[in-house]
Write a structure and sequence with these properties.
The structure is a single chain. The chain is mainly α and 139 residues long. It has two domains: 104 residues, no CATH class; 34 residues. 85% of the residues lie in helices and 0% in strands. The chain is globular. It starts with a helix and ends with a helix.
Length: 139
């Protein structure tokens, strides 16, 4: 969220506010989407009982996300502490993407085929067009 907001504010204060709202909305909806996926996979499974399957499929990191969000918004931490934690978070986020980039093997990606690449490109174009349309409509 930090880099997106920073990029927005680098353009203008209004763009920064929209970038922040967009990222916060995305983050807030992420938990609901994860739960919906867990429920969908649970319903499609006939091998395990529903509750056990739901627990198996449910992304447990969301509990940590909720705890951190609650602590960050509770007033227990000072602004300086939150700023420091934000810097560490940005560094770890960058490191995670470096690790992701280092693990990509282009030879394996070539084996995926043009259809998969096409799906990704269409997805990116549709999401970009919808985002641009929403921004133009709202402004």
């Amino acid at each position: 969220t930090g880099p997106v907001a920073a990029a927005g504010f680098a353009h203008s204060p209004e763009a920064g506010q929209w970038a922040t709202v967009t990222k916060l909305a995305r983050n807030a909806l992420l938990g609901g989407v994860a739960i919906a996926y867990s429920l969908a996979y649970t319903a499609s499974s006939a091998t395990e009982p529903g509750v056990r399957r739901l627990w198996t499929e449910f992304p447990k990191f969301l509990f940590g996300f909720l705890v951190v969000a609650a602590v960050a918004n509770s007033g227990l931490l000072s602004t300086a502490a939150l700023d420091s934690i934000g810097l560490v978070s940005d560094a770890l986020f960058t490191l995670a993407f470096v690790g992701l980039g280092l693990s990509i093997r282009l030879r394996q990606l070539r084996g995926v085929g043009a259809a998969a690449v096409g799906v990704v490109l269409v997805h990116l174009l549709v999401v970009s067009a919808l985002a641009l349309g929403a921004v133009r409509w709202l402004l």
